[in-house]
Task: inverse folding
């Protein structure tokens, strides 16, 4: 890779200090040539994005499947007999019948493992490429799903959940990045949201699977847990045949390979403007010596605060708890087994439908409009519940 020199950026009035300190961003480089980008949406891009977005279905499927499985009598009787007895005794009041630390460990072990894995996932993705992280995440999830489906004791069950969490940590970090780097700039918002679409469809699919497998006695829960291997297998096989992104190749110094891949995914050899922006943005990014330390500096504080608090406040609305434990919550409210799973499926269906609306409007209306309208809807719904 060519060495970064201040002379290359003199026409943009960018100082060496700004580049080293991190105040200069890739956006400053790309704005001047963005209108010169050529290319089209090739079938290659669409297929690559669909396969990569399958990673979102892994996360969504597990969100939807765990709550349904923990409401199944056969599953509780085998692994959590004390919870099963409480459930059978609590005919009139469902409060606290699922209060069990081991049951909580079964659910939370995946997300704790995912949190820890995500701390290392960015380094793996940066050093070895997005494709490597996708494949590794798919393999880990595939093994975890197999162990869970064949579990004979609680240790196997939780170990399988930990492997699922590692897979989610790798996949959730690499897949959105892969989608955004493969997509043409004018469709980046919509294609990047394919990850969210896959997540919501995974939740909906899991709810429907639980509705069917609860009738299969006594091993229906094994089928529910084991079917997580299907999207994991698709993501792993797809990852083997997928290329890495041009950005990732440039980031690791493969300049010519990155250009050839960009020409292939854009369907044209006239990619000079976009390729040059990628090269310059990569050089600027590599010139920043302490990126995480720079986040704590005053100039980066507004972005840092918003990036932390926006998802935090969304989670504090309680939506994640509803998605994780929907069948259990509905049962505790007095719904029967079938009714609780149907209610969960309806919730997942609404979530998936709203995601498609976002895809259709995100590149036309912009991110800010969707953010504000979504916030207003949440405020109204929270007040109605209160």
Result:
């Amino acid at each position: 890779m060519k060495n970064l020199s201040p002379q290359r950026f003199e026409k943009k009035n960018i100082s060496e200090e700004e580049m080293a300190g991190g105040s200069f961003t890739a956006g400053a480089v790309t704005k001047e040539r963005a209108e010169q980008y050529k290319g089209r949406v090739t079938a290659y891009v669409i297929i690559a994005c669909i396969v990569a977005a399958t990673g979102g279905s892994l996360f969504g499927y597990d969100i939807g499947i765990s709550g349904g499985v923990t409401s199944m009598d056969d599953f509780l009787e085998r692994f959590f007999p004390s919870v099963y007895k409480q459930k059978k005794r609590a005919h009139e009041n469902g409060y606290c019948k699922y209060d069990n630390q081991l049951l909580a460990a079964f659910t939370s072990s995946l997300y704790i493992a995912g949190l820890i894995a995500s701390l290392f996932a960015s380094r793996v993705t940066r050093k070895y490429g997005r494709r490597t992280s996708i494949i590794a995440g798919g393999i880990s999830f595939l093994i975890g799903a197999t162990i869970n489906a064949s579990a004979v004791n609680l240790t196997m069950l939780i170990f399988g959940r930990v492997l699922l969490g590692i897979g989610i940590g790798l996949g959730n970090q690499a897949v959105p990045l892969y989608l955004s780097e493969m997509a043409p700039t004018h469709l980046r918002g919509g294609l990047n949201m394919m990850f969210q679409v896959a997540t919501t469809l995974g939740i909906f699919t899991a709810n429907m699977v639980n509705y069917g497998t609860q009738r299969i006695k006594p091993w229906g829960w094994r089928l529910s847990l084991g079917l997580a291997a299907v999207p994991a297998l698709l993501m792993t096989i797809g990852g083997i045949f997928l290329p890495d992104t041009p950005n990732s190749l440039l980031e690791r110094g493969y300049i010519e390979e990155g250009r050839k891949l960009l020409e292939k995914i854009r369907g044209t050899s006239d990619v000079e403007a976009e390729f040059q922006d990628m090269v310059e943005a990569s050089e600027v990014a590599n010139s920043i010596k302490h990126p995480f330390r720079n986040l704590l500096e005053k100039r980066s504080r507004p972005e840092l605060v918003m990036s932390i608090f926006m998802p935090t406040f969304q989670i504090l609305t309680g939506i994640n708890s509803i998605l994780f434990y929907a069948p259990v919550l509905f049962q505790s409210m007095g719904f029967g087994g079938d009714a609780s799973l149907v209610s969960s499926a309806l919730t997942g269906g609404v979530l998936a439908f709203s995601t498609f609306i976002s895809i259709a409007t995100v590149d036309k209306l912009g991110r800010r409009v969707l953010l504000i309208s979504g916030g207003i809807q949440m405020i109204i719904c929270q007040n109605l519940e209160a």
About this structure: The longest helix spans residues 154-182. The CA atoms of residues 125 and 133 lie 6 Å apart. The two ends are 58 Å apart (CA to CA).
